[in-house]
Amino acid sequence: MSNKQRRSLVPSNIEQLSRYIAGKTINEVVVAYHPSKIAKLASNENRLGFSSKVQGAILKALPSIQNYPDPLANRLRQAIASKNNVSEDRVVVASGSESILAMLCRTFFHNGQNAITANATFVGFFVQMGVRGAHLKKIPVTKDYRFDVKALVNAIDENTKMLYVANPNNPTGTYITRQEFEWMMDRVPSDVLVVMDEAYYEFAQDVEDYPHALSYSYDNVIVLRTFSKAYGLAGFRVGYGIAREDIIDNLLKTKLTFEPTALGEAAALAAYEDDEFLKKSIEVVNEGKERLYSFFDDKGVKYVRSISNSVMMVFDSEDEAIAFTQAMLEKGVILRRIHAFGLPDCVRVTIGVQEDMDHFEQSFEEIMIAK
Ligand SMILES: Cc1ncc(COP(=O)(O)O)c(C=O)c1O
Fold it and tell me: Is residue 308 within 6 Å of ligand 1 at its C-beta?
């Protein structure tokens, strides 16, 4: 072997990334702190569970798992197309909407191009842009933690390929209004793809001025949705995207062939048909949010009103946010610090069922007394 200096094995854009540090699992918390109860409110999952129809559907699909799944997940694709009144060619189904974000980054960037988003939004998009080595312009959110639509549009240049808006946004729970969406779309050039990430759509759909991006016919928009949140199937990894046929056709070229899994498809199909469970999930979240707002108002806690299934608490400093999250963890309440999302002094609380919120409030009070 020569001693000649070699280049680094790993490209610098990958070296600069950090690995995803997941929150503590229920088991880890039990072992570390022996809390009397656990409320896992860290990952915006559905604390009500999932549709009772899912189990039977999985058992029915089980004998097929020795075979590769249908690469297009056609049965689910058809169901999604028909519920949203679009043709099947406009739908892509994959292992979570995060996988579609990865596909978008693989498909649309080559050297020198950029995407634009907010500085406080879904960390998964930051990561996938980093993996692709594409430039991401992060535009500060407004004082009230909203996407600054004007500043996003102003940041577009000749190398801009994509604009990413999570609506409602994670971790803030805020949203861009119908008027803002229309204003933005009137100004975004047609060769810039607008990614409307609607992972929390089901919780937001009835808000009066919420823009249903699919109800417009803009050619340069892709809408992303997921079965991980309102449908309670985060563990199965199923999400979908809806866009113009040729955009979907190109995404399918970069999709991993056999995603989602056959069981994921079967579970999602069953969940998709259960309107009752969905309705109940939305009710639980709406009630839980109102209860949390009153509690926070009563305690003088700063927070941001949300149209998703989580509420963001705002602390005076990062140290306070760290101390609060740790103290709650020791009581068995698992919350999410959101420094990786761009907001080091904030903490996100997923809305759970009544017992979760009881445990949250009780633990909060105990902490305040001990202070
Ligand atoms: C805004 C947003 N988009 C996408 C995702 C990814 O969801 P999944 O990959 O589970 O479909 C999440 C998950 O937290 C999210 O908050």
Answer: no
